Amino acid sequence: xREDPAPEEARVQRLIRIGEPPRNRAEAWRKLVWILPWxxxxxxxxxxxxxxxxxxxxxxxGWAGLLFFVGTYLAxxxxxxxxxFAGRIVVGLVAVLATLAVILPLTLGAPWLGLFVxxxxxxxxxxxxxIAYWAIPLNxxxxxxxxxxAGEETAWSLFLxxxxxxxxxxxxxxxxxxxxxxxxxxxxxxxxxxNEERLRLxxxxxxxxxxxxxxITLKSELAGRMLPDHPDKAAQxxxxxxxVSRQALVDVREAVTGYRRPRLxxxxxxxxxxxxxxxxxxxxxxxxxxxxxxEESESxxxxxxxxxxxxxxRHSGAGRCTVEVLKRQTLDGQVLELSVEDNGSGGSGKGPGxxxxxxTERLEKAGGTFEAGRTKHGFRLVARVPAGTSPAVGSGx
Length: 397
What we know:
It is a single chain. This protein is of the alpha+beta class. About 65% of the residues lie in helices and about 10% in strands. The protein contains 12 helices and 5 strands. The protein has helices spanning about 10-15, 25-35, 45-50, 55-80, 85-110, 115-125, 130-150, 150-225, 230-260, 265-275, 295-315, 355-365; strands at about 280-285, 320-330, 335-340, 370-375, 380-385. The chain has a 5-stranded mixed sheet. It is elongated, with a radius of gyration of 34 Å. About 30% of the residues are buried.
């Protein structure tokens, strides 16, 4: 097994969760970084304030209005990333931003028309879609009307930017909402699957042990009644209890073995999810042809796939992984072959780890073979298991 350079959990903790509040101060700063680049449109108002074109009172009022506008804008957008304000508060704050975007250009001039860009962004990100679809064009019309007084040329240069940026933000909002709903749906599906598995386990255990335990209870009561006067009959009941108990133990062990046995189709689906979540481009086949494949062979191949994908995700640093499941005809009969190939570095280990060693033993027990090693373009693992009965000599197979 390749060496583990860094725990996978640490990588997950560093991810920025879309549509969720920050979990710590570092994540809050990373989310803030996504907002700050949009403040580039404030360069024109800042240059206007420091140029000295206005009176002292007008400059002071301009600084106060600009700081209040930026603070309100950042508060609305940043809160919308996790715990948004109530609907009425959002509408009120958007109205405040729109009012400032009208007053400041009318009093201080054309350089302040860029504030309408932020109003359009806030409308697209925070307002409900049916309201945003009307608010964005109204904001654009307000830009043109104010621009007629403050600076018509600047207003027309911002016309398409204000209109298209607002509508693009509505698309981003829908994308974030879809991502959040998909995350919740996955969690719900996982919970339902776990509940269904628990119900199946309870049902199977009831079917396995209900009759046996009832019989043991009945025979125990009979043995207790017969013991004083008919010890020989009581001994027979005790022997029956022992036999039923042993059979119940065998049934439980067989059931547990079935629960623990992995299925190749389930492992393929899990491999697709794991590789995609790790940022690895995955080429995973659909439902494989498992006709006439013994359960032991399928289980061994499923373990091989799980081990291979774990190595790719945690140790290889690969960007691409290809999984193939094929049936091949050999002189020894049909075999089911699993191939997992990635373009990673192969890790820093100098020899096979415990995982690959245990996998080799598992495949040998199932009558299969195992190969793993570096290739010209990365690392490749191949596992083969019997897929059916061996052909008879002279059968023409």
